[in-house]
Design goal:
By secondary structure, this protein is α+β, with helices and mostly antiparallel strands. It has nine helices and six strands, in the order H-H-H-H-H-E-E-E-E-E-E-H-H-H-H. It has helices at about 1-25, 45-50, 65-70, 80-90, 105-110, 250-255, 300-310, 320-325, 335-345, and strands spanning about 115-120, 130-135, 135-145, 150-160, 160-170, 175-180. The protein is globular and about 55 Å long. Mean pLDDT is about 75; it is low at about 15-30 and about 205-285.
């Protein structure tokens, strides 16, 4: 008994010493915030229940989040990836709720599906998505938890670098509108056990955010959101834009132009004047797929270069949204190099 008491005292003392050491070093121990919600099959309620379990989650060093890690962009702005993660946990079909990292891409998808309501024309319901915009720039998205007729309530990721409960007047000027996913109300389908992901230490060099899955559901870009003015908190978040860098030079893109003949749906000649025009559609789900053939290949990189040179033929299919691969706001040689890199990885 004496030995057991001595051992207990030693353990307690060591625990206090470790806690004091962590405090002195300024280290923070954050909860994992596992999804503890049990899916009922009512997906609108399930997605709200799942989001509620995440309130309080705070991003790690370098902006790391488990939502970005799940999506493939662990250090990017993450409000859109947060709502996409919640939809994935609720087992909502991608036909009803696309997984997206760029707010404008998600809004465009719902608009094209006829499932978007502009502010002032609709009363938001639990499970809806709320999109924010300023001067035409869609910069933030959250998950609606309800409305009382005067205010809208939501849970939003990347709000002051955390997951918060947020409320705004329905008349708030930055509310662009609301998306209404086609949720199911059938039998419950439980999510896969959540994998615990520990935050990675910050590094000085830029993270490689060019890893983009070739089978992504919709356009994959970086979320360059800016947070709205804070209504119910005392602090404001300063958001930086996600930097993307391309270290490849233009010679690499030029050296691979000749491979376009072997790619599916490529041109029959290396001469840009012989490009075959195809219907101009914007249904491609792949970033970098500018000719709409459903895959990213050297022909897409070549089309981007032809567009930059100003020699693009009239009638040639060219998806401008997919051509801006690095989401810089303009189409340049860096986009051609990135499209080529994606095609090589997908081959």
């Amino acid at each position: 008994m004496v030995n057991n008491k001595k051992t207990l005292k030693l353990v307690v003392c060591m625990s206090l010493i470790i806690a004091l050491a962590l405090s002195a070093l300024g280290l923070t121990v954050r909860a994992v915030y596992e999804n503890t919600h049990y899916n009922s099959g009512d997906q609108a309620n399930d997605i709200v229940g799942i989001a509620t379990t995440q309130v309080g989650y705070y991003e790690g060093d370098g902006g790391y989040t488990k939502y970005g890690d799940w999506y493939g962009l662990p250090y990017s702005d993450w409000c859109a990836m947060f709502v996409s993660w919640c939809a994935d946990q609720a087992k909502v079909s991608t036909n009803a709720f696309p997984r997206f990292a760029l707010c404008s891409a998600g809004a465009d998808w719902f608009i094209n599906e006829g499932r978007f309501h502009y502010a002032g024309s609709y009363t938001p319901q639990a499970g809806d998505l709320i999109f924010y915009a300023s001067y035409g720039n869609i910069y933030h998205v959250g998950l609606v938890t309800g409305s009382d007729g005067s205010n809208v309530y939501s849970i939003e990721g990347n709000y002051n670098e955390a997951v918060y409960n947020v409320s705004y007047p329905l008349s708030y000027g930055d509310i662009m509108g609301y998306a209404t996913p086609a949720y199911e109300t059938g039998a419950a389908v439980q999510p896969e056990p959540e994998t615990k992901v520990e935050p990675e230490p910050a590094v000085e060099e830029e993270s490689d955010e060019d890893e983009i899955a070739a089978d992504s559901e919709i356009v994959v870009r970086y979320d360059d959101e800016e947070e709205p003015e804070v209504i119910d908190t005392d602090s404001e978040e300063e958001l930086g834009e996600t930097d993307t860098s391309v270290e490849e030079n233009t010679e690499e893109a030029e050296d691979t132009e000749e491979t376009s003949e072997s790619e599916e749906n490529a041109t029959d000649s290396e001469d840009s004047d012989t490009l075959t025009a195809v219907p101009d559609t914007h249904t491609s789900a792949l970033i970098g797929d500018v000719d709409g053939d459903g895959e990213v290949n050297a022909a897409d990189a070549l089309l981007i270069q032809i567009y930059i040179s100003g020699d693009l033929n009239d009638g040639t299919s060219f998806n401008y949204l997919n051509a801006d691969v690095n989401a810089s706001g303009e189409i340049d040689i860096q986009d051609a190099v990135l499209a080529l890199k994606i095609s090589v990885k997908a081959a």
